[in-house]
Amino acid sequence: MLVDPNLDVMLHDKERGLRNKFALVTLTLKRARQINDGSPILVETPAKKPVSIALHEIYQSKVRIRDKSDEPQATLSQEDAQAAALAAALGTPQLGG
Predict the structure, then answer these.
(1) pLDDT, tens digit, for every residue of 32-91?
(2) What pLDDT score was predicted for residue 3?
(3) pLDDT in tens, 5-22
(4) Looking at the predicted structure, is the pLDDT value of residue 23 above 70?
(5) What are the Cα distances from residue 64, in Å, to 37, 60, 97?
(6) Residue of 10, 8, 1, 11 lying closest to 56 (CA atoms)
(7) Torsion of CA 30, 34, 35, 38, to 10 degrees
(8) Rounded to an integer, what distance in angstroms lies between the CA atom of residue 65 and that of residue 31?
(9) What does the DSSP 8-state code read for residue 72?
(10) C-alpha angle 82-68-32 in degrees, rounded to nearest 5
(11) How far apart are CA 43 and CA 60, in angstroms?
(12) What is the CA radius of gyration of the chain?
């Protein structure tokens, strides 16, 4: 049973961005794979296994879930969408495309 770091504390701390156990497991496994592939370890820990190291990194807020709402979205303006639809209907190639 894992006592350190405390999983309940990790799941209830809003700053870590973990909404549920699935998010914690997913983040832990992705980070453990990175560690396995040679990424540097971000914390000092007595743990030797990549999953345990990843959990310690998450607990110490060295690794977080990236908020997708912060990422730029590739969206067309309404005018661009209308121009693309018209060009497709006319069979005309678009500028820059």
Answers:
(1) 999 999 999 999 999 999 999 999 998 888 888 776 655 545 555 666 667 777 777 776
(2) 55
(3) 777 777 777 666 677 888
(4) yes
(5) 19, 10, 37
(6) 10
(7) 170
(8) 11
(9) P
(10) 140
(11) 8
(12) 22
Domains of the chain: 1-66 (3.90.940)
Contact 35, 53 (CB under 8 A): yes
Determine the 3-state secondary structure of 65 from DSSP.
Answer: coil
43 and 62 Cβ atoms separated by less than 8 Å = yes
DSSP string, 13-59: -GGGT--SHHHHHHHHHHHHHHHHTTPPP-S--S--SHHHHHHHHHH
CB count in 10 Å sphere of residue 16: 19
What token pair was written down for 86? 């018209």
Identity of residue 90: L
pTM, whole model, 2 decimals?
0.61
Name residue, tokens 């540097």: 40
Nearest CA-CA partner of 18 in 54, 71, 42, 72: 54
